[in-house]
Structure formats: structure tokens, C-alpha cells
Amino acid sequence: ALEAGLKVVLCIGELLEEREAGITQTVVNRQLDAVIKTVKEADWANIVIAYEPVWAIGTGKVATPDQAQEVHAAIRKYLETVVSAKVAEQTRITYGGSVNSGNCKVLAQQPDVDGFLVGGASLKLEFIDIINANN
User: Fold this and answer.
1) Angle formed at CA 32 by CA 88 and CA 42, multiple of 5 degrees
2) 97-121 average pLDDT score
3) Reported confidence tier of residue 3, pLDDT bands at 50, 70, 90
4) Which of 3, 13, 108, 111 gives 52 a disulfide partner, CB atoms 3.0 to 4.6 angstroms apart?
């Protein structure tokens, strides 16, 4: 996709059992490693990471703002350690797990949440509230 000039949304996230076992970051790092070893540093300008915990997709369950921030910050730190500080700073890391008008504002306030990957809520009027979450 990158070679064809396309932008990529890299979705990563853990199962509920993995979160409960305390291995979220191990799982996410493993998923990142699969991409890190195949792309050049310059490619990251065309990649957006979407942290999307599998247990929250379409379930109505959502990571707490603290949980989302913790994982987003750890992803950013991992990119800094394994790729570069520039990539860590410039890569957009979005959240995508049952985002809706009721949780978007508090999620958007988290320093490492750079936006949202919105599923079903994008088909509803509340999508306008999600778009304007930072206003």
C-alpha cells in the first residue's frame, strides 16, 4: 500500500483476556514490531496508528480515558525507542473502540490521543459531536 502511494491506518489492539492478563503492551508492541521491521522510517509519515482494543469494537464498552492514554503514551514511547523520536512525535495515534458522543470529549482531552477511528457512530447524527470533540 505504501509503495503505491496510499496512506495506511494500522489498527492494533488486544483481546479482553489479554487486557485482564496485564499483557496489553506486550501484544501491542508485537503488533507494531510486525510493521516496524518492514517499513522505512520515512514511511511513517504515511501511517496512522489506531489503537482499537478488540474488546471494545462494537460492544459499547470503551477504554477509560486513563486506559486509552496509558496505551497511547506507551505506543509513542515504543516508537521513540525502536524507530525514532521524530516518528514518535509526528505519528498520529488515534483511538477506535466504541467512540461516541458521550465519551469523545474526555478521550480527546488525553495528550496522546490524536483523534478517533469511528465505526458505527459515524452513521448517526452524534457523529457531529465526535467531529467537534476538541471544540
Assistant:
1) 50
2) 90
3) confident
4) 13
Q: How far apart (Å, rounded) are the C-alpha atoms in residues 99 and 130?
A: 8
Model confidence over 35-62: pLDDT tens digits? 999 999 999 999 999 999 998 887 777 7
The CA distances from residue 108 to 26, 49, 69, 112, 129, in Å, are 25, 16, 10, 9, 12
Q: Provide CB contacts within 8 A for 129, sequence distance 6+.
A: 101, 104
Which residue pairs, CB below 8 angstroms and at least 24 apart, start in 24-29? 24/53, 24/71, 25/71, 25/74, 25/78, 28/71, 28/74, 28/75, 28/78, 29/78
Whether the Cβ atoms of residue 84 and residue 41 lie closer than 8 Å to each other: yes
122 has pLDDT over 90: no
